[in-house]
Amino acid sequence: SESSLLQLCKKRLISRGRLALLHLTIADNCITPGGIMQMLAAALALASSHAFVAPRSSTVRAPSSRLSSSVWYDAQPQRRALIAGNWKLNPSTAQDADALLALLASNVRTMAAPPEIVIFPPMPFLQTALEAVDGTGIAVGAQDISLEESGAFTGEVAASMVRSLGCDWALVGHSERRTLYDEGDDVCNQKVLRCLAQDGLKVILCVGETLEEYESDLLETIVSLQVRKGLAGVDVADADRIAIAYEPVWAIGTGKVATPEQAQAAHVAVRRALSEVLGAEAARRVRVQYGGSVTPESIDRLMAQPDVDGALVGGASLVAEKFSRICEFSAPTTPETTPPREITARVAVACANALGESPIWSQRDNTLYWVSAVEGELWRWNCEDAPYKIIPRFGTTLGFVAARAGGGLLLGGEDAILSLDETAREAVVLAAPPAEGNTRPNDGRVDRDGRMVMGMYNNYHRAGASQGEDNSGLYRFGADFEYEELLDYKFRVSNCCCFPADGRTVYFADTPTRKIYAFDYPKSGKPENRRLIWTQPPHWPGGPDGAQCDAEGMIWVALNGAGRVVRIDPATGAIDLVVHTPGCPTPTSCTFGGPDLDELFITTAARPAGGQLFRAKMPFGIKGLPEPEWQGGD
């Protein structure tokens, strides 16, 4: 009877001190379908009221709307995070795949401590992917494999074939394979065994419940069944070659969202089932990923859950910057004790720049200068009169403007380095910029010794045949225009170049990597002792653009795409002040100005909404530093 079965379940829970799956064999005429559902619901309710108790380990429980979100092990081993990108039937061409791979490889090379990363491209791109990521630590896998190893099976690809290419992983049981191709647990099990029969080939088995199953409180029943049947016959010695991806099918394309707590509860259910199949010790080691529409905005909270060991990423894996941000998740442990202070900048000049850049304050002229880069325009403003463009069009894209000792300005153009005497109102060509592919001068500032430090920009870093190519350098020059390359590596987009008061440190960022580095900056010789001071959080869009130092040694960084400028302590990486640019998500650079250097001026880009010059009065006694002048002369 139902009551005797439930009593048996209760006795087993009490006597063994743990959850046990209750295997029931019921004759068709013993109970009605409705009774079976009631019995399952009752058993699930009973199971949900008891946490799994491992020997000599306490269990922490947190309430959930569906399941217990217990931490399965109080002292689980350190499982290395596994982030996988499933490209599905994308991108559409080999050229697009090459571009995506180049960007991804470049981004991963700059990561200080990346997780284990796997990408699953479509089958025709496997060889290309293997070659593109060679030396980066990124692994490549197949999205599916055949049930067969050889024979007359048109269109099929065997596990031995993908392994012989050099693939390290295979994906099995994805929800789309289960739904669109009617692949059940038995088929998934055969594919898992095919993979494990290949020396060194690892497998991710996908499990998850449908919306109907979820709403019937059958999550634990379904994922337990899928794990047990999918891993039937697997040797415990192969546990380290297996990962499980939990995909809540009901959270994909339904408008419903799984919370991190719901993900944790489901992962506990997966790990319980793993214990039944492989034993408790192996279940501790197997990594369980979450696969329900993971984004840069959701990854941090997901990875904070103790039983979430990574993510199976879909759409976001097709955008290199998004996937890289997911790979650089940071799972918070404790909230910051002191949240950053926040102020709001206001529009000072409605200049409608397409790409405002390189603001500097000249104390000699008591004037702010900046450029509108792609329009080739130079702007000035004394904070009182109407601003105006000194020369409407220079005929070249401008990267930076700097003040010259003795008066006048230095301009970095795509085609030439220019000198401008305002009195003559004519620009004089001083030199050609360094020749290195399709690049142009971008971010630049004068160092404290009066030399110009200029970084380059890969014009194709967003699109085109050279997408993702690291071909830009950081240069220093004086009056002789002998360009001295400062770094021993190339990059894509130079930004954040600035110097504190003593001039013995330089800050620098390659914007697509979203990381800012500090270097020791001696009076002579190249920068050295590179160290990471800050990485932009994954849930903030965009990347670090222009920057400036204040009198207290803090660095102010415009976060292009995130709609803010942040003040960072380079010693700790902590943010203590945020300046918002309301209505404009694209601040591009900043500097201090005004008679007392206590105002922050922020340039912006027009797309998607901006192009104005913003201004914020500094609180708390914060002031900037005088802008050095280039000592190169005429």
What's this model, at a glance?
The strands form seven sheets. This protein has an eight-stranded parallel sheet. It has a five-stranded mixed sheet with strand order 9-30-29-28-27, with no helix packed on it.
Detailed description of the structure:
21% of the residues lie in helices and 28% in strands. Strand 25 and strand 26 (528-535) form a beta hairpin. Helix 1 (2-16) packs parallel to helix 2, helix 7 (185-196) crosses helix 9 and helix 9 (219-230) runs parallel beside helix 10. The protein is elongated.
Strand content: 25-35%
* CATH homology-level superfamily of the largest domain: TolB, C-terminal domain
Number of domains: 3
CATH class of the largest domain: Mainly Beta
Total E-strand runs: 33
Q: How would a textbook summarize the main sheet?
A: 8 strands, parallel
**Mean pLDDT reading:** 85
Give the strand order, joined by hyphens, for the main sheet.
7-6-5-4-3-2-1-8
**Residue share in helix:** 10-25%
